[in-house]
Write a structure and sequence with these properties.
CATH class: Alpha Beta
CATH superfamily: FAD/NAD(P)-binding domain
Distance between the termini: 24 Å
Number of domains: 1
Bound molecules: flavin-adenine dinucleotide
CATH topology: FAD/NAD(P)-binding domain
Shape: globular
Radius of gyration: 21 Å
CATH architecture: 3-Layer(bba) Sandwich
Amino acid sequence: MPEAHRAIVIGSGFGGAVAALRLGEAGVQTLVLERGRHWETSLSEPVFGNELTPTSEMFWQRDFAIWLTMEPTLIERMPGLMEVITAGGIQIGTAACVGGGSVVYAGVTVQPERRYFEALFPRGVSYEELDRVHFPRVRRMLNASYMPNDIYQADPFAHSRAFDSQMKRAGLPTEPIQTTFNWSRVRGELAGRLRPSSILGESSFGNSNGAKHDLTQNYLPAAMATGQVRLCQLTEVTSISTGPGGRGYTVRVRRHAPDGGVVDSRELTCDMLFVAAGSVNTTRLLVRARDTGTLPDLNEHIGTCWGGNGDAFVYRTFDGATGVSQGAPCASSFFADEGFGMPIRVENWYALAFAGEPYLSQFSVAVDMDNRGTWTYDRVSDQVKMLDWGPEKNLGPESAAMAVSQTVIGRGMAGPAPVLPPTGGTAHPLGGCPIGRATDLYGRVRGYRHLYALDGSLVPGNAAGANPSLLIAGLAERAMDEILADGG
Ligand SMILES: Cc1cc2nc3c(=O)[nH]c(=O)nc-3n(C[C@H](O)[C@H](O)[C@H](O)COP(=O)(O)OP(=O)(O)OC[C@H]3O[C@@H](n4cnc5c(N)ncnc54)[C@H](O)[C@@H]3O)c2cc1C
């Protein structure tokens, strides 16, 4: 690994992969630093564990496995697939692998609702432009599509049909939504040609057979194919500062062994630095840099506007055929502006543990305009923490989610009472480097030249009624168009 680089991108998730591809196409020599591993998938062998059979490889540097409703289990510390953080009253899941969140996500690819987007984002970030140019570009790159009818009618999607039927009979009709599942892999699983994964309800800890069109199948190989981009896995950035003589940037990295332990630490320099480590980790790096004085001119908005996207999970029952398992791809969703306390999108989710059981999992994202947290540097522990997020900040989205389920139950479509698991959790951390405040309207970080934040940290705590990956990738595409047109 040479020490001096033209551009460094920290993170290989949605923001980082878009930045890497567009830099490579523009002929800019680029190094992508990713803390997690590249996981080779297999059509026949298990690569990842799942919620019912937890393994150490599923978690980033933890002593016990924990995620939403999973039973805590002792594991060994290693650079595993997902980082789970408990910050105040919320549990946050964020990816730790090559491809970032695209490996662990459920592939749901939906647009923010325009009216709420315009209330949340600065005026200069045009919804019309994202809708016309950048969202279609991302959807094409990721192969987003609707669930075909033969799959919807298959046995593992009985829960999807039950959800749609419940919602329709309750007067809350769903509409199809796009995901990035690869339907020929799903058909291969259904036909018994491939080891089953997505049809069992695996997704949150990856699909061993590569059943999603994740970033390791599109943006990242396209970036490498430019000949300008290299990616170093298991390479974690621990600090950022200005470069030698005040020119460019120095990043300090720690290299991990795949089975745990640190290989070495070293410093690299670059002219242009793209921080795309995801909302929590971009925020941690930038708050630390400002408050320890390595980038003292970062402004007061760094660390602010953090939110969990109004995420909530609710379970309820259904009658009729249960199916042998609950497939992971989501077929449909329902959006309501009013009637539930907050505008809310609900989606039919899945649960491995519900195989053959008459329980439905409802996932929702509420448009929560108010509840936000702030990350600060704590000198005593030398850690960046969010101390102002109490359980009360989860209540609005959770009661909106419960209200939808209670409406379904109240109209006689399910029973008994809905269950809200005691989670206070989010899979959608957003904010910490809000666009238009900590950065300009294109992710250029205020106070420094050639320093960019390009990931979920730009989104001010809520994705306006959407799961956030399309928005994050769209904002990154838009920013790269502008940054490259401007000569960097
Ligand atoms: C279980 C789950 C299900 C989800 N389902 C959906 C869904 O269906 N639809 C949807 O739209 N969204 C979904 N999401 C959310 C989505 O995955 C994220 O919003 C998205 O990945 C965020 O993109 P990003 O570019 O901000 O960061 P990420 O995709 O998280 O990428 C950041 C990358 O940076 C790396 N990194 C972090 N710190 C460092 C460091 N210090 N040094 C080097 N590398 C670092 C990380 O390992 C990671 O690979 C889901 C998330 C989870 C956890």
